[in-house]
Model the fold of this input.
Amino acid sequence: MFRSLMCLSLLAVALAVIPGGYRSGLAQEDTKAPMTIGTIERKDPKLDALIPKDAKIEVLAGGFKWSEGPVWDKKNNALLFTDIPNNRVVKWSAKDGVSDFLKPSGYTGKEEFKGQEPGANGLTFDKDGNLILCQHGDRRIAKLAKDGKSFETLVDKYMGKRLNSPNDLVFAKNGDLYFTDPPYGLPGQMKDPKKELDFQGVYRLNPKGEVTLLTKDMTRPNGIGLSPDEKTLYVANSDPDKAIWMAFPIKDDGSLGAGKVIHDATDEVKAKKPGLPDGLKVDQKGNIFATGPDGVFVFAADGAYLGKIVLGDKNANCGWGDDGTVLYICANDKLVRIKTTTKGLGF
Done:
């Protein structure tokens, strides 16, 4: 995940500060409508069927150091997301606004963490409703235990060597867990002396606990997602020199075929637009919503570029919520949302 943290935006500063170091979310009972930001850049008329022409990008909360990993908690009708530098998972609901849900979230060691990103990154739920976390500081993927405080390690090594810092993840219907492992959680990143693997991998963890390396050819694998038929794996590459999104066919034996580039945003990065390819999510029709330079890119199932939700800021990840038609976006120090006319996978 791209990581060069910036000062709080003027917009976020305008939100009311509450104890805990972040701004309050806007609850349903509030009479004042949420602030709005950004625009919708429409490259193809097909985008109109996904995002209404009068859609607004609403600011729900702000003041985070770097927000990431949004996932909808259907049981509690709330959004969970990570604030990585603060080593916590935050909860937002329309009723109660923001509150701490879990701390620590990604680094549980007793010694001081020397890097900038100790906390959890990507989040998801398994079929049994357990919260699964990519833990930067602990360099593993873990399951939150029933006590709501301790963790069970699902995977932390490949071929006996410690993972770098698992970043994002997605479950297949059969229980296979696909995940990426760039170096962003290591204090020294690529040059960290404790880095044990000499590559950045994309992996599959099966329900038996067996880990398979799918590819090590991507320089900074980051956001990850599956097509609705689970025959294609999508992976973002957050390398400023190769800012691309890839699509890999999944073979019958579970290995990946030759990948193809869906879209190359390297020129936008070179033009100093904020952010890099990062987290992504897929809707029920196979459209891809992918955070990248200056906003959320929208691609059709065939890879056609339909347009962008322009935020004017770095943004890390997005996730479906409510009834599946609302897209929540972790935009640097803010949490925002946009209401769509499509529906995310899993709803």
Observations:
- Confidence is low (pLDDT under 50) at residues 1-31.
- The longest strand covers residues 232-239.
- The CA atoms of residues 203 and 213 lie 5 Å apart.
